[in-house]
Amino acid sequence: MCVIPVYNNQATVRQVALDCRKYVENVLVVDDGSTDVDIVQLFSETDIEVIRHDENRGKGQALLTGLKAAEYRKADWMLIVDADGQHKAEDIPKFLALMQGKPEKIIIGARDFTVENIPDSSRFGRLFSNFWVKRETGVSLSDSQSGFRAYPVDMLTNMNLSACYFDFEIEVLVKALWHGLKVQEVPIKPWYAPREERVTRFDPWKDNLRLTWMHTRLIGRRLSLWPYKKLVRKPVSGFGKLFRNPKSFLSHLFKENSTPIEIAVAAGLGVILATLPLIWTHIIIVLYVTTRLSLNRIIALSVQILCPRQIVPLACIELGHFIRNGSWLDSAKTEAVLNNFHHHLGNWFLGSLIITPILGILIGFLTYYLANQILKIKKASYRPLQVNT
Q1: Would you state the pLDDT for residue 316?
Q2: 227 falls in which pLDDT band (50, 70, 90)?
Q3: What is the predicted pLDDT for the residue at 344?
Q4: 3-state secondary structure of 33
């Protein structure tokens, strides 16, 4: 079943739906409260079904309405195509070829970003989204923001999904991976209108705030110890390997490859955790957090040498004492602090709230710069092997 959510796309929705109908027998248009045209009337002379929301509820709610309709019709798959004409119906057969057998995966159309008129915001948004999805799931995807997708209906109906807007597509993707589903990408060639003709329903402020809040919640859930309900069973991976197969885990630990931004985040996070008053548990917590977020563990552990106990923890305690008492520690008290850090956890924690983000950002940016420079040197020194014939 093909579902097309639409909100004020009068110029394109009819042709998009009719093109999809050439490849899919059941096409449903979910009108999310459009005010530019009567969508029901627009499709009155076709066999394309329309469900209408009386008011605009957001793309996520439109997709959930389509999901309920697909479940009612006992469809195995729900193929999503955007109504703005960005997706080409000619790519649908690529999805149909993969929609065979037991539906235990999500299929995503990975957009070719070499086509014309790609907005800079879309390029950045895809990189940003891919980075955080990997942190939340451990899975690397090339296009986690594409709206051209095929969802397994039965699996989605068993997930707890709450997002109502564009954040729905991130939530469903991450939770599907948590629940044990796979994600398979297929290459597609999107179409983008010229800048002056482009119509978008994405609100840069509201929708970016929603996406940020969604990623924050997902990261928090990822770091929790509460297990996920598995809809599809798969082999143990990630931190569980430490207990099930220590040799394999440690082998992977020392073979990590990371991009400059991933190295920078790992370094910044390592410094942040080294600054906090996590007495006797730093290494365990660093390993746990970096493993859960798929960050470079060696980098995160190594940067802790930048936070010697005689400098950073002491500075946090000094600052915390100043905030609480309005004065700095005298030399005698400073000497006592060096021998009894655990007696000053309150001041340490209070001071770390200010010092931690500053150090984390500074080390993160410095590490990113150095990693980029090293990468450039490696690329410049690389010469393809030439064979004389």
Answers
A1: 86
A2: confident
A3: 77
A4: coil
CA–CA dist 228, 364 (Å, integer): 31
CB contact at 8 A, 317 and 329: yes
For the stretch 334-367, pLDDT in tens is 766 666 766 778 888 898 899 999 999 999 999 9
Q: Which amino acid, one-letter code, is at 56?
A: N
Q: What angle do CA 211, 215, 217 make, to 5 degrees?
A: 115
State the pTM of this model: 0.79
CATH 3.90.550.10 residue ranges of the chain are 2-223
Q: Hunting for tokens 């984390």 — which residue is that?
A: 360
Contacts of 12 (CB under 8 A, 6+ apart): 83, 84, 85
AA letter at 117? N
Tokens encoding 45: 């002379």
Q: In this structure, what DSSP letter does residue 68 have?
A: H
Q: In the 8-state DSSP scheme, what is residue 15? A: H
- pLDDT by residue (tens digit) across 360-386? 999 999 998 888 888 777 777 655 555
Please tell me the predicted confidence (pLDDT) of residue 202.
Answer: 74
Outline where DSSP puts E strands in the chain.
Answer: 2-6, 27-31, 49-52, 77-80, 105-111, 149-152, 182-188
Give the DSSP per-residue string, 284-305. HHHHHHHHHTT--HHHHHHGGG
Give the bridge partners for 149, in sequence order. 80, 108
Question: Is the per-residue pLDDT at 248 higher than 70?
Answer: no
- pLDDT in the model for residue 253: 47
220 vs 4: CA distance, rounded Å? 32
| Contact yes or no for 352/316 (Cβ under 8 A) | yes
Q: Indicate the burial class of 46 (C-beta count within 10 angstroms; 0-12, 13-18, 19 or more).
A: middle
The dihedral through the CA atoms of 18, 24, 26, 31 has a sign that is: negative
CATH of 2-223, one of 3.90.550.10, 3.40.50.170, 3.20.20.80, 3.50.50.60: 3.90.550.10
Around Cβ 270, how many Cβ atoms within 10 Å? 31
The DSSP bridge pattern shows strands 105-111 and 182-188 to be: parallel
Query: Hunting for tokens 């290459």 — which residue is that?
Result: 187
In Å, how far are 235, 253, 283 from 290, measured between CA atoms?
Answer: 20, 11, 11
Compute the average pLDDT of residues 294-314: 83
